[in-house]
Amino acid sequence: MNKIIITMISIIVVLIGIITAVAISGPENTDKPSNIVTIVEEGNSNIEKENNMESNENTIETNSEEEEKISPNCVVTEKIYYKGCSHTTSSYNNIKEELVNKTKKEFEKEYSDWQIEKFTSNEIVIYKEVQGDCGEHYIVRSKNGQVIIYQKTENGEEEYLKTDISTEYLPETDRLQIERGIEINGKQQLNQLMEDYE
């Protein structure tokens, strides 16, 4: 009697195993899209169209390239070309806090009158052209034995800065140049000349 029960249990276990294996493997690859022929009536003729079932599924497209955003450490270089004097000035500024994490399109809205020459998360270079002079044209001259800096303007010259530099201690060639007037373009060049005279 025990042999019959053991045999019956073994047969039941084997059958359950076979049924489970068939259920798990399922029918042959059902992931393949099936082709269905649809008949569409146009006028008096029937036209057959082949539709792929897969195309009826809703798909979501994603952009694999994430847009670059401005980092808090970004430096903005503003280049301005002045048509009046044909000079370009450059200024370097840290990014404004409200522009951090903005994309290029969002940045363009803020600087719509500028051209973007370079845009990375850490460096942005923008450029524009304007009428007039850059305002960084100077003439260094002597007045009453002292070095005076004049700024050239559209209307002429204006006194810009009196220095504490006395012309009497300068070499003769420098004194002669200052008497004629030394034209300087840009604050950096002006600062360098003043350092040479001190």
Give your account of this protein's structure.
The protein has 198 residues and is of the alpha+beta class. Among the domains are: 75-130, Roll (Ubiquitin-like (UB roll)), CATH 3.10.20.420; 137-197, no CATH class. 26% of the residues lie in helices and 38% in strands. It has four helices and ten strands; from the N terminus they run αββββαβββββαβα. It has helices at residues 2-25, 104-110, 172-180, 187-197, and strands spanning 35-42, 45-52, 75-82, 87-94, 115-119, 123-130, 137-143, 146-153, 156-166, 182-185.
What is the helix tally?
4
Helix content: 25-40%
- Uncertain residue segments: 29-64
Strand fraction band? Answer: 35-45%
Q: Which word captures the global form? A: rod-shaped
- Please give the order of strands in the largest beta sheet: 4-3-6-5
User: Could you tell me how far the N terminus lies from the C terminus, measured between alpha carbons in angstroms?
Assistant: 120 Å
Summary, kept brief:
By secondary structure, the chain is of the alpha+beta class. Among the domains are: 75-130, Bypass-of-forespore C, N-terminal domain (Ubiquitin-like (UB roll)); 137-197, no CATH class.
